[in-house]
Amino acid sequence: FYLAPRTWKFAAWKERYLDHPLVGRLAEALIWRFRVGKNVSKGLWDGRQFVDAKGKPLRPAAGAEVELWHPLGEKQPEVATWRRLLLERELTQPFKQAHREVYVLTEAERRTGTYSNRFAAHILRQHQLNALATSRGWKAPLRLMVDDAYPPVHRELPAANLRAEYWVDGSGEGDGELASSGAFLRVATDQVRFYRLAAAENEAHAYHAGYRSTGRNTPANRPVRLDRVPPLVLSEILRDVDLFVGVASVGNDPTWFDGGPDGRFIEYWQRYSFGELTATAQTRKALLEVLVPKLKIASVCSFLDRFLVVKGQLRTYKIHLGSGNILMEPNEQYLCIVPQQTAKAP
Fold it and tell me: Cis omega before residue 21 (within 30°)?
């Protein structure tokens, strides 16, 4: 819906979505925009009528155009009001909408112009990245340690006439860093870029950094400036990439606290595990700030910058809201919790 946005006349939308016996259950839990000329109202169906973010009745015009609401471009107080309404009414949305992460162009990205380094310099598990990217509509061919060239992880966006690319390179060549197939177990990440759909493909050698275009150096084959990418497309693509990093990063693996193979990644692991919060983590923090005060353990919980702090009977624990990794006060000792791999026999 967001990468191929659609609008409907109110009557058609009501028939195909709200009144549909199956789809209607999903449509009822979503926020919609109703536009008549320059006038826009936003509403949610509560089973009897439409209501606005404050729960007040709303009557969309019969001739209104309907589209799915997105928090991008909305003022934060309004977004917070929608979130509060959903929590008060205990509504579960079919996908993340009111709590959806938003990614806007940064000053650093305006300066770089044609690429974003926001998700560069990460180490990701390649097979997990491949599976997740594929499920999100991206193409992510497995990179093998062979004398061959590969395209970046990419997704075509026909509605915007764009192709989004996430540049990665194979990481590691030693024992234990390749699958039996010869595929790299991990990849190192680089830039996010956008090209027109008709632009020549980029490719890079399997384990040598540096992408190059397969076409001539013409304007049609050059990257699109980020400030010319539709803001909603930019936000949704960066949201996908944030998800790839958040799920597939080795920084999520507590067994890597020593830096992985030969300790090469200890600096990255520490930076990822306890560093600045991503948009996903910031959304998680905002939700926890509402939920934690309602728990029985609320009196021993507090928030400190990027951590949830829990005062236990033995120690005080600082849980990073991004990675979930834990430090113990007073000496910032790392608490390694490794999930049990196999169930015990009954």
Answer: no
Tally of CB atoms within 10 A around 248? 24
Co-location of 116 and 240 in the same domain? yes
Q: What is the C-alpha separation between 85 and 89, in angstroms, rounded?
A: 6
pLDDT value of residue 344? 47
Whether the predicted pLDDT of 345 surpasses 80 = no
DSSP conformation class of 254: G
- Contacting residues for 245 by C-beta, under 8 A, at least 6 apart: 119, 122, 124, 189, 278
Residues 132 and 230 reside in one and the same domain: yes
144-188 tens-digit pLDDT? 998 899 999 999 999 999 999 999 999 887 777 899 899 999 999
- 209 pLDDT higher than 90: no
302 lies in which domain range? Answer: 276-335
Give me the chain's average pLDDT, please.
Answer: 91
- Structural domain includes residue 101: no
Q: Strand 153-157 relative to strand 149-150: parallel, antiparallel, unpaired?
A: unpaired
| Domain count across the chain | 3
Of the candidates 137, 110, 151, 169, the residue with the CA atom closest to the CA atom of residue 237: 137
Query: Length of the chain, please?
Result: 346
pLDDT of 23 strictly over 70: yes
Is there a contact between 114 and 221 (Cβ–Cβ < 8 Å)?
no
CB atoms closer than 10 angstroms to residue 256: 20
pLDDT, tens digit, 9 for 90 and up, residues 65-86:
999 999 998 999 999 999 999 9
Report the b/e string of 2-38 with b at 16+ CB within 10 A: bbeeeebebeebbeebbeeeeeeeebebbbbbbbeee
Residue 143 lies in a domain: yes
